[in-house]
Amino acid sequence: MITFTTKMLRGAITATALMTATAPLASAEVLTMSSWVPPTHFIHTDFLVPLTEKIAEVTEGRVTVTILPAPLASPPQHWELARTGVADITWGNFTYEPERFVSLWFAEFPNAGTNAEAQSRALWQTYQTFLADNAAFDGVKMLAVGMFGGGQLHHGSKSVTSPDDVKNQKFRMGGPIQEKLLSALGAVPVAAPATKAYEMLESGVIDGSLHTMESVVNFRLEDVLKYHTVFPKGFYDATFFVVMNGAKWDGLSDQDKAAIEGIIGEELSAAWGRNFDLQSPAAIEKLAAEGHEIVEASPELVAAVDTIYDTMVADWIGAAKGAGVEDPQAMLDFYNETYTALAGE
């Protein structure tokens, strides 16, 4: 016969077992991540998801990250989402807010390189050495920075190799640095996100568009961009961040912060770049196989871009000093030297 006391004892044991089993879940820190690319994009599948998995792994499940099913705001608002704590972790492009991040313009100028892993590692080292205490970056924990290995020039109907080929052509672009570059070459810059490129090309609103080689494929623009002009050191670039709300980071235990520190920083920045380095050669191979024309910019066009680059750097040095960078030229030199060394490894 089961007595009342036995029933109570069994109930107590069961309740204790349930509490023990659910205790780790109850005490876990669940972080939210807002991302603005679709779940099929390689940034999501090959970079963001592995990051969430690594965070859970190194903290033994004490910290987990949930990627939200839809972004909480437009891409340019993602820095503020993290800084204000609307989302715990976000990523985005620094020059979506160009005035806030004047200090980083140099890395989006021409000739920043075509090895994305080396670029991203060099940019991380540059940030740590020169910018970590800059007020523009207050309020967040920087998890990684990244670049994409050199954007190039793409046209829908003709080969573009000389300065004259660029003049008066309407090119979609995404930011103020690209706008200045195109304007200086005599082209007509048209501001629009990459997601609008297909319809703009198909309707004749633009003649060409600025992209990395991989984004021609990943944005499915192969049918409307058939001509690709490659600059050996990159025509332009883009700088990216992965950040966490500063207060949320400070609220983690010392044990978990130490564990996460081991997988972020330069290591995570390198992982960002490696993903782009894998994507671009595959894209070039695919486009070539489909009969696209892929040519190098002529020496005359490269020289024209180099002249514009010198002017852009001179203008940026004054702006960067106004943004709190003590010696912008030293920072630029450090980035270039670091990139060259890392790219040669």
Written description of the protein model:
The structure is a single chain. The longest helix is centred in the first third of the chain and has 24 residues, at 4-27. This protein is globular. The chain folds into two domains: 26-149 and 238-278, D-Maltodextrin-Binding Protein, domain 2 (3-Layer(aba) Sandwich), CATH 3.40.190.170; 152-236 and 290-343, Bacterial extracellular solute-binding protein, family 7 (D-Maltodextrin-Binding Protein, domain 2, 3-Layer(aba) Sandwich), CATH 3.40.190.170. It starts with a helix and ends with a helix. The chain is α/β, with parallel strands linked by helices and 345 residues long. Helix 2 (42-58) runs antiparallel to helix 11 (266-289), helix 4 (116-131) packs antiparallel against helix 11 (266-289) and helix 4 (116-131) packs antiparallel against helix 13. Residues 1-26 have low confidence and may be disordered. It has helices at residues 4-27, 42-58, 78-83, 116-131, 163-166, 176-184, 197-202, 213-218, 246-251, 254-261, 266-289, 299-322, 328-343, and strands spanning 29-34, 63-67, 89-93, 140-147, 152-155, 170-173, 188-191, 208-211, 227-230, 239-245, 293-296.
Low-confidence stretches: 1-26
Q: Which CATH architecture of the largest domain would you pick?
A: 3-Layer(aba) Sandwich
Supply the number of helical segments.
13
Kindly give the count of domains: 2
Mean pLDDT: 92
Biggest β-sheet: count, sense, barrel? 6 strands, mixed
| Succession of helices and strands | HEHEHEHEEHEHEHEHEEHHHEHH
CATH superfamily annotation of the largest domain: Bacterial extracellular solute-binding protein, family 7
Strand content: 15-25%
Biggest β-sheet: strands ordered side by side in the sheet: 7-6-8-5-9-11
Number of strands: 11
Distance from first to last alpha carbon? 77 Å
Summing up helix and strand content along with how strands pair, one would put the structural category as alpha/beta
